[in-house]
Request: fold
Amino acid sequence: QTGELLTGYQNHFQKEWSREEVERVMKRMEFVPHPQEYQSQFKVSYEVPHPVAYTEVLRELDIASIKAKTIFTGQKNLDLIPTSAGKGSALRYLHKQASINAKRVVVAGNSGEDLEMFEAPYKCIVVGNADQELNELEGEHIYHAPSAFADGVLEGLLYWKIL
Reply:
């Protein structure tokens, strides 16, 4: 409501995250990072040369005793973030911080990066241009909109009687 940064969210995972250690492992594996605009303090993003390389990353992180949540999408994109970070945990933090009942929260998405938000009791909208990971989701709390992008979000909001 005030437009101020909520530092409490990042404070709870800041202690568990060492961006430098993650980057060191990925550099040793010769992964190419995505451009700087896709990087942040709590996310490192890479192109995966082949799907098998993803399992190699998991093994190398484990060997280095690095705890990181891996988000592998489109068989070629890999984001590494703190284990307690991500869209799902951010969503849970925000609705609790704002004292909004989870059953009143609506989420929409189109990629595997959105997957962890798509859990009950949230009302979920999978837009028409969604990746396979989201298209495979089922449940009473999930609406699959035929239309893509913002049109799909609008269809979902109508379906959930928000509009």
Remarks:
- The chain has a mean pLDDT of 92.
- Residues 15-81 form a domain with the Hypothetical Protein Ta0175; Chain: A, domain 2 fold (CATH 3.90.1070.10).
